[in-house]
Amino acid sequence: MPPFDGLPSGVRSVPVPAPLLGELLEDIGDLAELKCALRFFWLLAGKHGPPRCVAADEIEGDPVLLTALGSPGAIRQALAAAVERGVLFEAGDGAERVYFPNSPEGRRAAERFLPTLPAAAPLPGAPPAERPAIYRLYEENIGMLTAWVADLLRDAQDRYPDEWIGDAIGEAVKSNARSWRYVERVLERWEREGRDRHGKSGRHPKAVTAKEYLRLRG
Predict the structure, then answer these.
(1) pTM assigned to the model
(2) What DSSP designation does 54 have?
(3) What is d(CA 54, CA 38) in angstroms, rounded to the nearest whole number?
(4) Which helix (DSSP H) or strand (DSSP E) does residue 112 occupy?
């Protein structure tokens, strides 16, 4: 491959979220995922007017990514990894599938894009009514609650105290790393090393209920 000739004068700059060139750059080990994420923000920069998103058929048929990754299937796989990591947010299905940045603005745009579901027909895997607090915290701070995320939260509640999960979500917000993967890493570290909060050492002795969590946290 011939060497690159260098950046031309006056070349267009594309805004890329700082974490993608910082902590996420350290975390992403799949080059295909990184290429898709960067190309997504390049495509997004050319969008004007709401909703600012990139259609699945556009990014899966993008000639640059096709050359880099070889096939639409490889692009889909890399996009799925970026969605799972929390860099992108996927909305819609089939021909209407689109990708948004997983940011507060992107999530609000995705909520407007998704069709309104009737109250009598909740999403499959929706969280049980008796444990709403953690799910509400997730939606308000991390992203929309899909069936897959609800399963992850249920698994986490079986393993960790509700207070830990809420505090780990708070850590993700403070670190501007709003993804479940980051929350999970915090929880795993606390489980491995223990916590020392308000002068109390060692692991949290028991889980608190959602009712207790709401009472404690207001």
Answers:
(1) 0.54
(2) E
(3) 13
(4) helix 104-113
